[in-house]
């Protein structure tokens, strides 16, 4: 098997190692990084859409009320 390269210092890392033997930085796969970023993005999108829905739902259709009379 081929050795991996540390994303921090560029040292060869044995396959399956979670930390670089040279600098000690944790090694994560690109798939895990993309999956984590996608999860955060989806969660933020759900929160924003939920907030917009709540704001629009609470806004009254007629801010003055239904009994407004206009007198000349």
UniProtKB/TrEMBL annotation:
Keywords, comma-separated and alphabetical: Membrane, Transmembrane, Transmembrane helix
Membrane recorded as keyword: yes
Instruction: Please state every residue range assigned to the domain named Zinc-ribbon.
Output: 6-25
InterPro entries, per database record: Ribosomal_eL40_sf, Zinc_ribbon_dom
Q: Does the keyword Membrane apply?
A: yes
TM segment ranges: 34-56
* Name recorded for this polypeptide: Zinc ribbon domain-containing protein
**Organism this protein belongs to:** Marinobacter orientalis
């Amino acid at each position: 098997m081929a050795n991996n390269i540390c994303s921090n210092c560029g040292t060869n890392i044995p396959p399956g190692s979670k930390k670089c033997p040279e600098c000690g930085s944790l090694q994560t796969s690109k798939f895990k990084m993309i999956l984590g970023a996608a999860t955060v993005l989806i969660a933020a999108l759900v929160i924003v859409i939920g907030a917009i829905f709540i704001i629009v739902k609470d806004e009254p259709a007629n801010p003055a009320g239904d009994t407004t009379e206009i007198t000349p």
